[in-house]
Amino acid sequence: MPTRKVKVPVNKSAKGESFKKELEKFGRYIVGISLESLKTVGKYDLTNRTNEFYFRVNSDGVLRTRVPNKGCIELRENQAFLSKSDKLTLWSEFVRFKKDEERFVEVEIQMREEDPGKDSVLAKKNFKIKCPSKTMYEILQSKDGKTKAKFKIYAKQTSY
């Protein structure tokens, strides 16, 4: 007996569909930290070269990043790095929490200065970001007080 192929209608439109049920169970957020500015009045090299800065970001997951991932932000003594309008994102992540869970994300940022054969940690800070929260601005200052970085921290609810 020959087999018949039966065509099953497939609904390809998204009309009338929403994330309403999903959003009732979970809260979804986009959380991030971006660099607004970096200023230095110090000189960290023995020679008269530029200071080479970068950031190490450790989140509570297994994510570890280096920003910029290649190269450094080079600044001379008494010079500032100002991020453009799109900002330099150090870290961002989509997170999802159940309705009854505590909504915090922990991130550690280290400001480092790179020299041949030596990487020194100038400053580090742990951020505990509550979801959702208003945009905050934090300053990370080196131990010797010669270098400051200003960060923008945000945690917004999203449906994605």
UniProtKB/TrEMBL annotation:
This is CYTH domain-containing protein. It comes from Candidatus Lokiarchaeum ossiferum. The lineage of its organism: Archaea, Promethearchaeati, Promethearchaeota, Promethearchaeia, Promethearchaeales.
